[in-house]
UniProtKB/TrEMBL annotation, chains A, B, C, D:
Matches recorded under PROSITE patterns: HTH_TETR_2 (PS50977)
Residue stretches making up the HTH tetR-type domain: 20-80
Name used for this protein in its record: TetR/AcrR family transcriptional regulator
Keywords, ordered alphabetically: DNA-binding, Repressor, Transcription, Transcription regulation
DNA-binding region: 43-62
A Pfam family recorded for this sequence: TetR_C_24
Segments of this protein annotated with the region Disordered: 1-20
DNA sequence: TATGAATGAGACTTCATTCAT
DNA sequence: GATGAATGAAGTCTCATTCAT
């Protein structure tokens, strides 16, 4: 497993405390635009407009448009991997761990929909950019976290042994993260309910007993 | 339900028989590039290079880059809706129909991976382009086809009645179409096997009996 | 009569005081090129070269090449209509008003030869561009100003009553504005002398008494 | 005076009798488009469309788009100069000659409005194209024809001697040829009536006696 | 004669980025 | 920190023209 603890943020500029607030604001604005329109379709002028400054002024805060994407993804993926690691370490049975991972994922979608959407939608782009190889690395780590749980569950008898774990993992992953495309954080449906529904279907199947 | 039978292709240029072959070739090339690099990231020069002609020569065949995307999507979505309609009409129980839809979807991913990827990945872009409103229309129609089957299955007792059909549909949809992101048409895993795996998990659940 | 007082300039970008100077410079350069080479034959690169910047930099100041033409024509035609209105309102007899309009026209040619040439030469083009419908509107208003004077002069006995006012107006108009094709603002012939010659011929005719 | 009798048409292709008809058709179509939309704004595709053939097929008849313009203008200007020469030679007094030139001009506008419009509107363009220097040459010749008549009329006492002949000529020229911008060959107003109006105004002036 | 495919130059425009103020 | 002007590369598209069929 590749080591990804505490993702290094080498190029992040030195900042005073006050500045940090402005950076975070701008990153939030950028993340929303990137998620909504797509990274390539979002211009630095779009970001500047949304922030109430000229596009050129963004370069006082960030080195480039790509640097903004980098900071958003780095923060997100580091946190995601860490919180998954915590769950894996803190629960007993594979079934409890899997349920924890799933519930945490839906909570993450609720909390950081833009970063999730970015991660979901810009896969093709990120694969082409060498500076973003860490995304693939962390992705692999996360995949390993999930596969380990599934394999352990099959071995322990928690899960069926006639399903291919790798294929099963992908079905679960796509259903879970695909939720970002339709779930509304401020809508009627709570993310906990979405998780309940998913777990109920996943564990029990679609057919009545 | 909006009527979408035989999607009109009003602006397609008049063509003789021989021309059609060249158009189809160019569209296939464009579809692959659009799917692989993303529509925005693909330049007309990329397409021209891949086809062995100058980018400007593409405009002898198509009005614009957008027109190429349009023709690809229109053909694909029209065909998809039609083949789903055939399945709905030709089977008896909701369970048989659902299985048919799912198997057909995996077969479609096998046959037209580029168009499927396009439809999956460019949602944000298409929503911004007024000329592509028909995509949303056909999408709604297809959603209705699937929801009808799920509702009928719940009513008939084929499917569990304690799951929200709308949420369940989205989970299924995202798993099925998300397959385009990892399935390899020429790989070891056949699309029929993927369908078997999915149906087994969907119907029986992850837990052993 | 269509109302054309103070032509709206809705899309003109918000600008500070300093910026206005650069805009005006660029517009003057563009106007000269448009008038000399023709609008279509003038490339944005021509304009950039003449201004000492890259063509793309023009788009920092204007939305498009067409927007430059628009601003030139809008300013010119609004001013022309206004100055004619002032003359119509400020003089007594039709003969005095007509003389005022004619002298003002020659003075305008002297002062803004490029805008006049543009208005003269690009009629065919402007008729095709929907964004320039205001040109036709103001033209109609100006025609009405002149026709009113001619009609009043015929009624008052100032002018002959055996000439068709509409046809006469066109002869006068074409002679007057056609001057822009040969008059040289910095040449020996003063615009006042041109006006004298024209009025002498127009009022007295070519034949000796 | 430059000699311009029988303008040479060196590059005109050898043609059979039948072909000539098609050439003439195509030139008429091109002339109308050039006059209506402007030479630069007219594409060879426009011409092809109007003629019912593909743009590339035009090159079986003409060497280039410019060659079409050349043939139109060469025919027109040669004919114009010749018919003016006939008038100058065939009448007695300067007044009769001037009246002849003016009536002939209006008749020409009636008969060949497109060629006249071309000659009027594309002055800026033609000045830039070396292949069209003959246009300036014939223009000078025609100017000389008119100025000779005016000078002769002043000397003979037919015309007032207190008007500058050169300036007067330009006023007349612009009024006469400017008519092409508003006269409708198939309208109610006959070109003879336009000529009557113009001569009445020119000779008698605008003021009542 | 006409078609259909292609060329090659050049047009307008966009956009991330830089920098003096 | 922010502005406003400018850069330079790149993108989409147009169009006169050529040529094999």
């Amino acid at each position: 497993m590749a080591t990804t603890e505490s993702v290094p943020r080498s190029k992040r500029r030195a900042t005073s405390g006050k500045t940090q607030g402005r950076r975070a604001e701008l990153l939030a604005i950028a993340a929303e635009l990137f998620a909504t329109k797509g990274y390539t379709q979002t211009t630095v002028r779009d970001i500047g407009d949304a922030a109430g400054i000229l596009s050129g002024s963004l370069y006082h805060h960030f080195d480039s448009k790509e640097a903004m994407l980098d900071e958003i993804l780095r923060d997100f993926m580091g946190g995601l991997h860490a919180s998954f690691a915590e769950i894996v370490a803190g629960r007993d049975t594979p079934r409890e761990v899997l349920e924890g991972l799933i519930r945490s994922s839906f909570a993450t979608i609720h909390r950081s929909p833009h970063a999730v959407a970015l991660y979901q939608n810009e896969a093709a782009l990120l694969a082409h950019l060498p500076d973003f190889s860490y995304v693939a690395t962390i992705s692999s780590d996360i995949t390993a976290q999930w596969l380990d749980v599934l394999d352990a569950g099959v071995a322990s008898g928690d899960f069926r042994d006639d399903l291919d774990a790798r294929v099963t993992y992908r079905f679960i992953r796509d259903s879970v993260w695909g939720t970002v495309g339709w779930y509304k954080p401020h809508g009627e449906l709570a993310h906990e309910s979405v998780a309940d529904q998913f777990l109920s279907m996943l564990y029990g199947g679609l057919l009545p007993r």
